Amino acid sequence: xxxxxxxxxxxxxxxxxxxxxxxxxxxxxxxxxxxxxxxxxxxxxxxxxxxxxxxxxxxxxxxxxxxxxxxxxxxxxxxxxxxxxxxxxxxxxxxxxxxxxxxxxxxxxxxxxxxxxxxxxxxxxxxxxxxxxxxxxxxxxxxxxxxxxxxxxxxxxxxxxxxxxxxxxxxxxxxxxxxxxxxxxxxxxxxxxxxxxxxxxxxxxxxxxxxxxxxxxxxxxxxxxxxxxxxxxxxxxxxxxxxxxxxxxxxxxxxxxxxxxxxxxxxxxxxxxxxxxxxxxxxxxxxxxxxxxxxxxxxxxxxxxxxxxxxxxxxxxxxxxxxxxxxxxxxxxxxxxxxxx
Length: 341
Ligand SMILES: [Zn+2]
Ligand SMILES: [Zn+2]
What we know:
Radius of gyration: 20 Å
Strand content: 15-25%
Helix content: 25-40%
Number of strands: 15
Number of domains: 2
Structural class: alpha/beta
Oligomer: single chain
CATH class of the largest domain: Alpha Beta
Bound molecules: zinc ion
């Protein structure tokens, strides 16, 4: 089987490897699609460092190929699945208090992590989420990032008909938009790039604004009888994105810093704005098992369409070009399609 091995930043080797044998408590998956997410882009660019060589890829889908003899869950060969490839230990403090997304041992064993850029992969049954046959492999590869957005919206405790402000309309901003729409929210997307604003509008944003031309706070108060947005997700790592969002919030609003920053980011804020308005500012990292189930159901029920977010598909041999497109700043998701020649 083929595996794309990152041997140094910017350099993949496409290796021929034996198809792995599932142990008795493991399942062999034939991988069919895997997104090139920010994590892979940062590994490729060298902005994030993990022990190399490794096979990246954590937004993967495929089908069950073989099932170990001691797997207790009733699984069927051929079943279409989305995969959770960021391993949780199940043993540390956070795993045991139900916050496995904060697992202390996530990145400890590089051999059991990521791996979606190979034709076959062996996983534990709890890493498998069945997907309806009506969902394509491409669509199923969005289950993981979608689960992260669901986790984010749940952390904000959004309520139906609330006004949500999404700052940034990259892939994650737009996935928040799709998930938020399915939760009955009224959504304003703030994005300086006009092509991305058009995409946000096409995907059903109630309002789309250019933060360079429109005062977010004034706009938010205009559409809410002077109240302001009641919740906000910041998906843009731009240092100038956060403060205008905070100033546009209603009293008792909640703000989630969803984006990761490549460097340490200190942003000066008027803390009295937070104090006087009882604002809650939080962050989210990854997703839990329930979030993943909910993402897979949203896709399986046909509640959301992620196809407009597929910018390009690549084969193993075109992976370098796929990363170039992904890193260009103009793309949404680029997918490695394992069976594409
Ligand atoms: Zn991801
Ligand atoms: Zn853990």
